[in-house]
Amino acid sequence: MEDVLYRILGADMSALPGIRSNAILQIISEIGIDMSKFPTANHFAACFGFVPRNKITGGRVISSKTDRIKSSAAQAFRKLVPSISQTKTALGAFYRRLAARIGKAQAIIATCRKLAILFYNTLAFGISYVEQGELMYQKKQAEWEKRKLENLAKKYNCSIVDNNAKQ
Length: 167
Hints:
Layout: H1 2-9, H2 21-31, H3 41-46, E1 52-57, E2 60-66, H4 72-85, H5 90-102, H6 104-125, H7 134-155
Antiparallel strand pairs: 1-2
Helix pairs in contact: 2-4, 4-6, 5-6, 5-7
């Protein structure tokens, strides 16, 4: 089935983590294969309700809930997340990190958004997905946190002492 989908779509959609041919068919049957109706990947994710709809008044965010959209393609993306959460992929690590911090419901939506953007980029531009793995994701996350901590220390004129450094 993957060979037939590759010939029809012109891209290897099964390289995305957790996506199988039945989910690809369900998503494609709803949105089609023409991605020109979506200007960007964010527009693509928004049509499934995977982005927050911020209600702002007076410069303050009153609410930032996502839309409840009942489409079979959005349901297909949501059904993929439990299997992704169990894998040792970067997307699985992303889900587990968010689930611990903001809760499972919001982590599912955030993972669906990321998966929808990967799906769009693969289908629209033919960009093949290369899995970087859980360890690489955790390494990049640790580097980002260290850089953020260094910037905060610089902002408040503090210094950082590394107790784990070998002497």
